[in-house]
Description:
With about 160 residues, the protein is mostly beta strands. About 0% of the residues lie in helices and about 55% in strands. Strands 2, 3, 5, 6 and 7 form a 5-stranded antiparallel beta sheet that branches. Strands 10, 11, 13, 14 and 15 form a 5-stranded antiparallel beta sheet that branches.
Amino acid sequence: SQNESSITLQWNKINNNISFVLQYDGTETNISSPAGDGPVIHTVTSLTAGTKYTFTLFSVLDNVRSSGVSIAAVTKPQNAEGFRSSIQDESSITLQWNKINNSTSFVLQFNGSETFISSPDGDGPVTHTVSSLTAGTRYTFTLFSVFESIRSSGVQLTAVT
């Protein structure tokens, strides 16, 4: 699992005599084999939101390491800031929010549908107009930031035509 600042890794325990070393970002963490049966679970903290990490796991017996296995995992991106309605008329609402970076796209949910929105070139806010709406109606929009197919927790906005 992952959130904005941590990734939890899980793997199968080999036996009580085998420990592990986890490498990522130039650091190494020694992990003892836990007592009992079941998987080994380790949470890596203090990570940066919306970032891809490569982890290499080695099993260790008597200070001898295995060849290791690597996986890539990403932290959830941060939510978009400044999510607001900027213009509304009888049949449309224009939404606006702050761009995060060029690698983060967005998904807008409302009325049971989802719209994928790419991160625009350049600086400045992201603007998206939702049309074909009904006059005098309240709509709830949920905006997710998306990085490497992982969604943020989402922010909500209610706006009326």
